[in-house]
Amino acid sequence: MDILVARTEDEIRHAFERLVVATHLGCDTETSGLSARHGRLFSVQFSDGEFNVLVPVSEGVPLGVLSEILTNASIIKIFHNAKFDLGVLKQHGLPITREVYDTLIAEFDRLKAEPITERELERAKNQFARDYILGRESNEQKARQLAHALVIHHDIKTADGEFDIFQKLTAADVQRAARTAFTPENRLVITLLPAAGSQ
Fold it and tell me: Where are the domains of the chain?
């Protein structure tokens, strides 16, 4: 994949002319951390699937005319975890229109609409089995498992029963749980901020 790292006004203009005709663009930000309000913005990327551009704003390169893409209502901007990227852009004075598609939310919606594949289910079960076994190697880990069984399930015998429960899950079980859990009403967004006075 070729990526144009646009540092000059001509490169930014060229990228703009190529991307402004798109109806959908993949967009992303790279930052110094997990805080949209306090992280340093390193770069902004755009892609139409064939042409990719990265603007290294941490080098002092302004988005220039590319910022018009963010406010162009005729272009749907596609982000993964859009809330974070939109917060970063806003914090750095880069407004954006509401025409945004979030692939993270879309993946939750996909889980509700269609069952996972047998391969995905088998992989998840294998990962659970590995974590289940490795999570019981020390006495402390065993004690935590027993405490979990007692506090959550009110039955210490369930400490060994969870393995069988998870191994018997079906794709339909996963879909049913997704439909129950992944609703807008259940969505909780937590924004972590540094302690007062720290940067």
Answer: 4-106, 116-186
pLDDT recorded at residue 160:
81
Burial of 194 per CB tally in 10 Å (0-12, 13-18, 19+): exposed
Strand, coil or helix: 33: coil
Count Cβ atoms within 10 A of the Cβ of residue 121 and give its class: 0-12 exposed, 13-18 middle, 19 or more buried.
middle
Which 8-state DSSP code applies to residue 136?
T
Tokens 């969870």 — which residue?
162
pTM, whole model, 2 decimals?
0.63
Question: Domain 4-106 - what CATH class?
Answer: alpha beta
Query: For the chain, which residues score pLDDT lower than 50?
Result: none
d(CA 12, CA 54): 9
